User: Fold this.
Amino acid sequence: MPFLAKASLKAPILGSLNSGPPPRARALAADPVDDLVVPAADGKVLRPAAAEFDGLLPFNLRTTVRPLVIAQCRTAQGVSLAVQWARQHGVALCGHGGGHSYEGFSSCAGIMIDVRKMDAVVIDAANQTARIGAGALLGDVAEKLFVKKFALPAGTCKPVGIAGLTLGGGHGVSSRKFGLTADNLLAAKIVDATGAELTASATQNADLFWALRGGGGGNFGIVTEFTFKIHPVDRAIAFRLVWPNNFPTAALKKWQGFAQSAADELGFVLVMSGGQGHITGIRCTGQYLPAVAGQTLTVSALRTLLAPLLSVGNPTLTTRQFSYIEAARYFAGNGDPNRVFFKGKSDYSIGALTNDGVSAFISALRNSASPVAAIFEAYGGAINRVPEADTAFPHRGDTRFCIQYFAEWSSSAATNKNVAAVRALDAAMRPHLPGFSYVNYIDLDLTDWANAYYKANLPRLQAVKQQYDPGNVFHFAQSIPLPV
Ligand SMILES: Cc1cc2nc3c(=O)[nH]c(=O)nc-3n(C[C@H](O)[C@H](O)[C@H](O)COP(=O)(O)OP(=O)(O)OC[C@H]3O[C@@H](n4cnc5c(N)ncnc54)[C@H](O)[C@@H]3O)c2cc1C
Assistant:
């Protein structure tokens, strides 16, 4: 049922991509923001001078777009009013959850439709499901679920939003056991381009439901609530292996073999850092979960599982016995909410890197002009057992790991050299990797981005876009294009 905006909708206000350029703010005679009326129960209109405004700008300081106005919504009706206002005034719009888009796509020159206040977590323990407001942040979700000893597989960083994470897939240390965040989605409520609230699930708007599981944030509407399958959890062991810095080749070769064969109960990431002639760090951090909830975990059983990694280069192994939530807090670190400058680029390895690929990587990492890191996230397990066409997220099957090249810095003066370092590492690996990319590490450098993110699922995503957003209202630099 569509909610009514102050003035009735005259459709279509925004042209389709087929018929012209993307939507832009048109010249407005009077201040259009005066027309944006949101009742207090449904939200609040924040102009740039509002105290809360800057706190909602994207986490990545490298991105600089400030919105004209923010609709801080508390209800689906508030979201609907904001969408309809944007259409009536021909103003660009974007959804905003945790604000952690790598390219700042939750801000735009028009209206940011923020759902952060819609962050309730309601657990149905009997059915092992939870309704989670689209504005919830991962740290809060984990804490609230664990009060009843449940968990949702998700990323580790506390201030990342459930909205962007889920819509792009969502991998984390529990994903080899429980799947991607999107794999656990049962239903979503979403306000579409007309301002109507739809439910997407296996039985309602099933194509949209398919697309919301990995098709990327910001493409089909503004999600207001998710329903997830949740998993009983109790204990976990967190582990860390640190190799001496003179073992990069042996460690990486062994790690990528291990990433294929490891038990589902292990979720793990290899981080290698270097630059300016040195390898500066080689460590694998991970989590060991019981095969079935309640089963006792022992460090000796973990050591047996990790034997292949322990057999090379004499790494130091540290283990911590934790409750599941303590492990989540450990992986999250201090979860510094302060905005930083960063650049990430990603690819996927289908099978293992060749010896030439490993050599090229180590050499490029060591010789990077400025410090840079590569983060290898092990796939396999429950992630890879879902067929690539079953959800919009396509990186399954023989995918061995996601690799991310990453740099973070604190001053704009350092932007050019850090971005160049990340790009150089990616360029060195171009001959050795397929050129796919994770949509949640969204990357404006990519030219063939739609195929890189979605592979063979792109045509179906375009068909869903045509069905649910034919006027291309939800448009940004890398939104799913309408079919030609
Ligand atoms: C420090 C850091 C750590 C990360 N760790 C992980 C990790 O462990 N695992 C992982 O898989 N990913 C990780 N990511 C990537 C993360 O999943 C993406 O950046 C994700 O898009 C962030 O979601 P968000 O809601 O915080 O971002 P936002 O910037 O708010 O939104 C991202 C995109 O989704 C859209 N969007 C936001 N809200 C809605 C909504 N309600 N409805 C529809 N569209 C919406 C936005 O318009 C934008 O296009 C990390 C990112 C950072 C910066």
